[in-house]
Amino acid sequence: MTIRLTSKRLLITAISIGLIAYIIYLSTSSGSGKNGDKNPKNILTIAFDSKIQSGDPRLIGSDANSQYIENLRFLPLISFDEEGNTLYMLADEVKILSNKSWKISLKKGVKFNNGKEIDAYDAEATYLQILSPQTDFPPSPRKGAFSNVSVFKATSKYEILIELKTPDTSFLTNLTIGILPKDAALSSPPNVVDSKGYESGPFLLKSASASNWLLVRNENYNFSTKAKMEQVDFKIITDSGTRYSALVRGDIDIAQNAIDPDKISLLQKTKSDIFNILSGPKLSTTYLAFNFRDPVFSNLKVRQAIAYAIDRKSLLQFRLQDQGILASSMFPPNHYYFDSNIPELPFNTQRAKTLLKESGITDPISFSIKVSNSNKSTVEVAKAIAANLADVGFIPTVEMLENSVFLDQVKRGVAKVWISPWVGFKDPDHLRFVFASSMVPPAGGNRGAFSSASVDELLQEGREEVKPEKRKVIYDQAQELLAGEMPYVYLWHSLNVAVVAKNVEGYKLYSDGRYWSIINVTKK
């Protein structure tokens, strides 16, 4: 029998599938929270807007959610406090031997969940698997951050010697990788580190799927006080409307940087009796980037035309409800390495049209702006930017991609123009990771293959300089060169915004977005 799918029948089928998916979500979700039986006091439920790419410290890449989970499961040598300042974790003392060598002493008595004490040989093995992976183990996305290492060696049970090929005063900020036991680090297959006693953090992974990662309290955790919550359920809800509905219904206790700005404003006006809205500074910069492999976008006049055509102030005011500040460079104004000498780009359509004409490209410039579909407000911003660009003569479209597909295309150099944020950076060496010629993926984050010998030289010089005041001068010069070359059009620095249910106590914002404060959270 042949079935003809008419447009009407297709519409009915699509609606039916949507209803079934929604009913399944309702039946499997944490519940209303009001009756307390589906969202009990011993479970903290947190909304994520995109998938967690990996739970293996050796293979975690640049996606923030994977790093947030890693931080809770595997203790690193170094971490950061609420303001982004360096915090020693497994490291007990760091001795500076030179501007390219350190001796790190480890805390004694800290254990993995299987009871084994964490020692320097575990740290050595974890980092060596990233630096020089064993046979058949895939290259780590983190390898680029350690390309300068010449020695990473356990000199005794509790001491590590690190030596670099060239000076790098920012190197310690890279030592945030969760430590695995030596045998696991060297021999466990990729992404096979769960439920084996390898974790040392306040939580253990109980289960993981595309829709949620469930963590349970590590009862053997002995680094500090045990977590107060028995379980933390990270629910991955990629649709912003569904996330908001789940939050309002009571299925979600915390939604950090996961609710659209217009909905935040609505919650402040109508749900202040149910939710607290926390906000604060965030180490985050949203940008529009160009692929320099494409001859159109390697043309400076084209990039400048695009920059002048974007009405960033209106976007921030009306699309983001003023939940951020305009960006002129990578670093927000409260960052030590912010360069106040870089002028703010004005919105000037006539200037944009003139620059486009001066580019020498006579054919219509047609392209897609790629964006992750995990954040509705970013999608709406992309559409508004496309409209701005169309007004001055470009022919842009917006291509919304599932987040993992988006990240893959950007890393592989498929995207010509895209919008994305960098989140959590602390040291100005982040500029080298993003813009140095040697940092094209998989080595680093230079996804647009930008290249400038002058910028490379300054970024290397800044990497080697020890004194902060001298580094500031160097990085100011680098930022001014980058402002001229315009590999990015900087859009805004977002605020850190979390919607927290009133019955949740003890939650604090971290400037880099991490969730470390949940170890002290309780629910009434």
TrEMBL record:
Q: Which CDD domains does UniProt cross-reference here?
A: PBP2_NikA_DppA_OppA_like (cd00995)
- Example GO biological process: peptide transport
Q: Does the keyword Acyltransferase apply?
A: no
Q: Where is the Solute-binding protein family domain?
A: 99-429
Q: Which GO terms describe its molecular function?
A: peptide transmembrane transporter activity
GO cellular component term of the entry, any: ATP-binding cassette (ABC) transporter complex
> Does the keyword Acyltransferase belong to this entry?
no
Tree of life domain = Bacteria
The record's InterPro entries line, in alphabetical order, gives: Peptide/Ni-bd, SBP_5, SBP_5_dom
Q: Which PANTHER family match?
A: OLIGOPEPTIDE-BINDING PROTEIN APPA, PERIPLASMIC BINDING COMPONENT OF ABC TRANSPORTER
Instruction: Identify this protein by name.
Output: Solute-binding protein family 5 domain-containing protein
Source organism per entry reads Silvanigrella aquatica
